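anyone seen this seq b4? input:
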Amino acid sequence: MKIEPSNSGSREGASGKTKVRDRRPFIIFFFCLVLASAIWLLISLSKEYRYELILPISLENLPKGKVPLEQLPHHLTVEVNATGFALLSYSLRSKGKLFSLDVRALAGSAMVSDTDRLVLPMESLLQDQFFTDHSDLQFSRVRPAQLTLSFSGSKSKRVPVRFIGSLRFAPDCDALTAPHLTPDSVTVFGSDLDLQSIACVNTNPVALNTISQSVQQRVPLAIGKLVVQPAEVLLDIPVQRYTGQSEEVTIHPIHVSEGIHVRLLPASVLVNYRLPLYQQNKAVRPIVKAEVDFKDVKTGSGKLKVLVLDVTGQAKIMKADPVYIDYIMIR
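predicted toks r here
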């Protein structure tokens, strides 16, 4: 009997080679696409652009006993010429930083026209203070070209800033913390009577809908006729994606007097909560706990509210069912 060698191995080898060859066009296409995108990006960033920078401004170190009579503009609009690389570098390192004006230092220079009036030419100040740190940006013009500060002998006080707004998040998103304002307090100038009636300064109303990522934006203050420094704040809302969870949690009585036995009906509660997506597989159990406080209850029966607590510090409690439970205390 003549036995012919099997070709199954060679077929499998050929099949494997065919599969490799079939993937090569895709790999080559993907490599060429990445290379072309990188070359296009380099060419685009190497070109020179005309761009408007928004510089928030702030007055610092005011002369003792002097305050500005008029509200300064919230920001300067600075037109520059720069390459894409320089603009990208500025955006990553310095965008949103305050441009501070040291009034006491400037008042000692030749820019003062009289004791209660200070004229600030913005171009020379920017060249001295801003463009020395950003030499890769070429100045074109600034609006307003100059600031005129008129002073009086009014008083000032520091008051907190209160956020006013409506925030609506995407279905699977929520704020990681409460909205944060920087700075969280501002200086208000005015007469004694004006200052006595001011406990805080509100932001202009902010309405954000379907928020799905962290928010950072500058918000003007609702100052009316007040003189306030600074006149706007940075709003920061860290946003995280959450996943919904539900868990049956045993209720623990606390602050029960010695010698007292407690029966709870029901003995557990169904808790719905949301957990950050990145913590879903990392969170240490238990995530939530349920308690009933008998501090002010000595004997008898009745209803008490269930207190649901986040053990991890990461979960957001959404709902507990039931909210109230029955109890019976027996000596």
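The chain has three domains: 45-153, 155-237, 244-330. The longest helix spans residues 8-46. kinda curious what u guys think
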